[in-house]
Amino acid sequence: MTSYNHDQVLSHWENNEVESMYDKTLLSAEIELIRNRILESSKILDAGCGEGEGTLAYAAIPHVQIHAADFSETRLQKAKDRLRGHDNVLFKKVDFVNDYKLDHDYDFVVCQRFLINITDWEIQKKILLNLMSLLKQGGKLIMLEGYVQGVDALNEIRAEWGLPDIPVQWHNLFFDDNKLLPFMKQQGFSLIEEDGLGTYFLLTRGIRPTLQDNLNWDSPFNKAAATNAVKDMLGFRDKFSRLKLWLFEK
Ligand SMILES: C[S@@+](CC[C@H](N)C(=O)[O-])C[C@H]1O[C@@H](n2cnc3c(N)ncnc32)[C@H](O)[C@@H]1O
């Protein structure tokens, strides 16, 4: 997918029935990966916060202040409901494709499966630069986004085991390391860290489907696959991981 249909993507997220991540074990693992990198007393922008599942976890980090931004009223309302009573979170209706006003002194900008919704690399680059401009000097962008090389590695091993490809959804464009890394380097931003959930993806989207047809997300197998013990033992990080964490410093 190379073209970007903004209005179609917006109406997808305005649909009350849509959930950003149906695999809640994966969602918790994503949130953990991000939360571990955020320092106490930080000012954070949660860009494309959705219904605030991540925001809720980040809001519990001591003394943080969060601006949670999204372009969908439906998502923002769900996030507001979820975070009622958390007075360290301010909600902002922002369309990152258009003009907007936000602060320029964030310690962290978090993008959790947000930028993949901008299905055009040229626009993704523009938004990346705008997000970096909102960080204070030394501030960090934490991207947990779709990853082309992870999709390919997972699909290759699935093919060896007789399983069909898992496609990328119509409203997503995943990041290619061969484009993202040179672009960020050229713009003067340092790549500090890379990580992923490769162990979880390999076990739940590679091995488990060879054994079982009913792939209910809420299974003891998936919960075991997400534990730190298994993660550390197999240590696949971004290999086989459809989602990768990149941490860039301004
Ligand atoms: C896959 S959801 C992720 C939500 C949340 N970050 C999470 O990880 O659960 C993507 C979110 O990005 C938002 N989004 C997509 N395009 C946007 C844009 N141009 N400006 C602001 N938000 C946008 C959507 O409304 C949606 O809430």
UniProtKB/TrEMBL annotation:
InterPro entries: Methyltransf_25 (IPR041698), SAM-dependent_MTases_sf (IPR029063). Transmembrane segments: none annotated. Residues 44-139 form the Methyltransferase domain. This is Ubiquinone/menaquinone biosynthesis C-methyltransferase UbiE. Keywords: Methyltransferase, Transferase, Ubiquinone. The keyword Methyltransferase applies. Its EC number is 2.1.1.163, 2.1.1.201. Gene3D superfamilies: Vaccinia Virus protein VP39 (3.40.50.150). The keyword Cell inner membrane does not apply. One of its GO terms (biological process) is methylation. GO terms for molecular function: 2-methoxy-6-polyprenyl-1,4-benzoquinol methyltransferase activity; demethylmenaquinone methyltransferase activity. The gene is ubiE_3. Signal peptide: none annotated. It comes from mine drainage metagenome.
